[in-house]
Amino acid sequence: MVWQLATKSDICSGIIGSGKDHTQNMEHSEGFLKLVNSVRGRVKEISVADTQIRQNEASKAKLIDVREDHEWKDGHAVGAIHLGRGILERDIEKMVPDKNTEL
Fold it and tell me: 3-state SS of 13-79?
């Protein structure tokens, strides 16, 4: 499993995911694909172990869990903030006001 780190502005732009290329085998608009590709290089992926290290270092980074509500209820990482994919862009600014926060 891989976590992604991005700035809050990347999240507000609607670009964050699971580390997998979900655009394959799906039909997306040209505008959506252009947006995804334009920010892809700004999202750094790290391992679960590296995420745990960052959390233990008292980093100000936030771990955002974007899974569905029922998946969150089944279990989630300690310290994670739940913002389901459907509301992420709408609520991220309320949950993490500093746009320079590492997510």
Answer: CCCCCCCCCCCCCCCCCHHHHHHHHHHHHHCEEEEHHHHHHHHHCCCCCCCEECCCHHHHHHCCCCC
Q: How far apart are CA 10 and CA 40, in angstroms?
A: 9
59 vs 49 pLDDT, higher one: 49
* pTM greater than 0.85 (yes/no): no
Alpha-carbon distance of 38 to 40, in angstroms, equals 6
Nearest to 42 by CA among 7, 14, 12: 7
Q: Please name which of 37, 42, 83, 46 lies closest in space to residue 64, comparing C-alpha atoms.
A: 83
Length of the chain as a residue count: 103
